[in-house]
Amino acid sequence: MAPSTTAAAAVTLVAILSTLVGSTHSTTASKVPVNKCCEKFEVYYDEKCTVAETVNVTTGWTPEFTGRNGERNVSVAHRFVIGLPDCGTRQKFNIYQYHDSYDKLILFPDGQLRHRSLNHKEPARSSIGEDYPESEDPHEPHRQYDYVQGLYCVDRSIESGREGGERMEGLVAKVCSPQEDIHWTDSDVMLRKIINPICHGLAIVILLVVAIIYFVLPTLRDLVGNMVTTITMCLIVSQAADLVRIFTEFSNHVSFLIADLFFYVSLLGAFFWLNAMGYYIWKMFRTRNVFLRVSDGRKYCWYSCYAWGCTGTMAGIALFAHFFLNLPGHSQQQQHLSSGGGGDSVFENQDNISWLGIAVFFTPIAFIIIVNMFFFITTLRFINRMHTYGRIHHKLRCSFVMFTLIFATMSIAWLFLILSWLHFDGLLYMHIVANALQAPCLLYICVLRQKHVTFLVKSCFRDQTPQTAEWGDEMTYMNGGDY
């Protein structure tokens, strides 16, 4: 009987343990998971997880649940899930809720987190029930996003008031950027995400062909030809940077800033080089002695100092304005919002070039367009007053026509770029079309329209020795009206 009694006792003990473990597991599973950024004994102090006792804080963060209808302090059994959200390829950013801030965070009983962003023109309301009504009215002055478990974490945030600031306590949430469903069959998505990138790629190839032609052929490698090569290379960089800007959701905010910087700097450099070309042609037509004792290489160095020096100076001013100068109403937003992970610097809290930085980049372009119009009008009047001119003036006249067409093409594309910022789909589509036509137009202006250039290109494929005389092709076609 002893062995049977022992076996029965063992079975009973196993059954009791199974019951206890099962009840414990069911109790744990029934608790609502709440994602906490730091450990239970830590708080988010000065953008870093810090032990609460070391910063004179007795307790950590206790979640406060709010019902869907605005009920406060709803009693919910919960458990903490420690760790940052796994955003994958999506951007991760911080949301801060302080007293009277425009960002409100609410935790629902099912574990979802809602972020309500109020309009800065509306006063922040003190009642959570007023801040989070279940309203889908599109005219409400706010935006809201809901985040499920795994796409957010919340914790208690404390700012020590460094650099003379005020000590603030509130909440911080690290969330993954909301990702809207993309329907690739939609015409708008196809135009923005498929056709537009393809056009950018074709534009890069076409501009590269123009640059190679003017760089390889010795006859075209004069001062104007080198300027055309530099302008096309600047446009290639701007097209590549704009191609990166199209797919902003596949990278982080630092890539946004770098892509914007390359785009605006290269575009500004292209216009400065276009201005240098216009000045050179204008000056040569007004100079009595066109046989100046200065080589094209030295002139190119002088114009390089002007173009790249002005471009670098304006880029430095734009970056300074972007990082250190705030527009009205921007300081309030930057006080409560921060991007990136813990310990990010002020440079990493920037997503794109600000409007003030864009204004610094684009204001010189507007003045360059005005100055180039002056060069065009005065040079055209001078050409119309000329009755006879030699082969050098004939070549300058050819360069003037090419400058005029390049100037018109780039100015129209720049104008449509500005109009695309008005948030009208029609203007954006017009900008996409204008940008797609810019590179083919430059190919026609610089290569196909000039028969002496096409003749030199064909002679390379015919295995013939090209003419090495400096003005040979100009003399051949001077009387044919091929320019």
UniProtKB/TrEMBL annotation:
Transmembrane region(s): 194-216, 261-282, 303-325, 353-377, 398-422, 428-448
Annotated keywords: Membrane, Signal, Transmembrane, Transmembrane helix
Location of region: Disordered: 119-140
Membrane topology value: Multi-pass membrane protein
Gene3D superfamilies: Rhodopsin 7-helix transmembrane proteins
InterPro entries, alphabetized: GPCR_2-like_7TM, Mth_GPCR
This protein's name: G-protein coupled receptors family 2 profile 2 domain-containing protein
